[in-house]
Design a protein that fits this description.
GGDEF domain-containing protein; single chain; Rev_trsase/Diguanyl_cyclase; 5-stranded mixed beta sheet; 5 strands; about 475 residues; alpha+beta; Alpha-Beta Plaits; GGDEF_dom
């Protein structure tokens, strides 16, 4: 089926749904318009499977099976067959109820395809909202069904099973929406809209029966809700036109990111418990105190879990910021800030142990000309590759940091001046792209400050540049030492 054919199909189903609202009861038109779209949509979904890559078909197979269950249940209802004798639930109920776990399985598979790892923040948020709405469902749908002594226990359980199944779908739909990411892939979005519409139809039934039993028995009200179901399933079938649901495997981002709509939803869910408690106290008295207490405890625990997730994510991000602030973004080496913070303390320890210390300033020769000739991206790559190559030649107790621009600073410890010079020569040999560098080395006298030591190395560096570059110059001794 072409894209144009799909839109013709969607238009036809919509027209059939509208016609069903006004079809006469006699002559079979109403029954036909109620039944035919379900089977047509099932067939369309089967045809649409060819748009889906083989590895991605699992959730769509679940949706097809759910449509089959709905179509067969509608057939049983329209024809008026009571296939199960006695007071047991009819096959139509069993088929309608089968729709929910089958679709939930499809949603789980779609979420797994959307992300390679579980987004626990989305799961916690989904269950928090579901727990809040679940309190309302218990008070206005589940508990009244279970307390209805006019029917058998089996019938009561079946009636209560529908809102429970709705809560299951609601939780999985929220997880799907949260897992869809900012790119908003069409298939998950349309599936979520379809499931949301279907759940809205279920809510309409509950509201009508609680407001006034007579409303639920009016023919046009029944038809309007059935049309709402059909249009929701139509959106579900159209989602297969955009079957790609695989994302980048992220998901962790949603732990720290909590948008205003998400925060508002969580807040409303948390307010369900006190609102329900106040409502019951002001009307007929507290009837569901135990359920409200349990629900409140569950939501409190979920909020604490969410708070813990946010706290841990905040700590990880703070640690990352600290690491980034201490690392040069381009080369990954320690930056000048780390050098300035840690080098004075290192000298104090070295003075206590009388460890030989030398500092070497390194500057790539003619780096500006290299940038002008090959471009700044090539210059960045030169700095990166040079830093990696130099690190591999250093000893475990040496430290290389980026000082700024094309300048690096090297801390050499525990070696005589000849060995320190040999380390710098090894770095010169592995400098990439046949580039050279000038270097100035200063040996510490155990008395001068860290700034003075670096300043002497810097003076020696400029002497190396003035002397023709591609060489290492040794700094003069501190002035006071020379005077002694």
């Amino acid at each position: 089926m072409s894209r144009r054919g799909w839109w013709i199909y969607g238009t036809a189903i919509t027209i059939a749904a509208a016609a069903y609202l006004y079809a006469p009861e006699n002559g079979g038109w109403a029954r036909g318009l109620q039944l035919a779209p379900d089977f047509v949509m099932t067939g369309a979904m089967l045809v649409g499977l060819r748009f889906v890559p083989a590895r991605d078909r699992a959730p769509w197979f679940c949706f097809v099976l759910a449509l089959v269950a709905t179509a067969m249940a509608t057939l049983s209802t329209v024809v008026g067959l009571d296939w199960v004798p006695g007071d047991l639930p009819d096959v139509a109920d069993l088929l309608y109820l089968a729709f929910y776990p089958i679709v939930a399985a499809g949603l789980v598979l779609m979420v797994r395809q959307s992300q390679r790892r579980i987004d626990w923040a989305a799961v916690v948020d989904a269950f928090t909202v579901t727990a809040g709405i679940g309190l309302l469902a218990w008070s206005y749908a589940i508990a009244p069904s279970l307390r209805d002594d006019s029917t058998s226990m089996t019938s009561r359980l079946v009636a209560a099973a529908y809102p429970v199944a709705d809560l299951l779908l609601l939780a999985m739909t929220i997880v799907l929406v949260r897992s869809n990411g900012r790119e908003g892939r069409r298939a998950p979005t349309l599936v979520a809209i379809a499931i949301g519409g279907y759940l809205a139809g279920d809510c309409a039934w509950v509201l009508l029966r609680n407001l006034n039993d007579g409303w639920a028995d009016i023919a046009w009200v029944n038809r309007a809700i059935n049309v709402e179901y059909q249009l929701s399933l139509l959106v579900l079938t159209l989602a297969i036109l955009w079957p790609q649901v695989r994302g980048d495997g992220g998901g962790a981002g949603s732990v720290s990111h909590l948008s205003r709509p998400q925060l508002a939803g969580l807040t409303l869910a948390m307010l369900m418990s006190p609102a329900l408690l106040i409502t019951q106290e002001l009307t007929d008295g507290i009837v569901d105190g135990l359920a409200i207490g349990i629900g409140s405890a569950i939501m409190f625990l979920l909020v604490m879990v969410r708070f813990t997730q946010l706290l841990r994510q905040s700590e990880r991000q703070a640690q990352l910021v600290r690491e980034l602030s201490r690392r040069d973004e381009l080369t990954g080496l320690p930056n000048r800030r780390v050098w300035g913070e840690e080098f004075p303390a290192f000298l104090r320890r070295a003075a206590a142990d009388r460890v030989p210390v030398a500092v070497c300033m390194i500057d790539l020769d003619h780096f500006k000309a290299f940038n002008d000739t090959y471009g700044h991206p090539a210059g960045d790559r030169l700095l990166q590759t040079a830093a990696r190559a130099w690190e591999q030649e250093l000893r475990a107790y040496d430290l290389l940091a980026r000082y700024g621009g094309e300048e690096f600073i090297l801390l050499l410890t525990g070696s005589a001046i000849e060995d320190a010079m040999g380390v710098v020569d090894r770095l010169r040999d592995v400098t990439p792209l046949d580039q050279t560098f000038s270097a100035g080395m200063a040996v510490w006298d155990y008395e001068e400050t860290s700034d003075d030591l670096v300043a002497r190395a810097d003076v020696a560096l400029y002497a190396a540049k003035a002397g023709g570059r591609n060489r290492t110059c040794l700094a003069e001794e501190p002035l006071r030492t020379a005077q002694n």
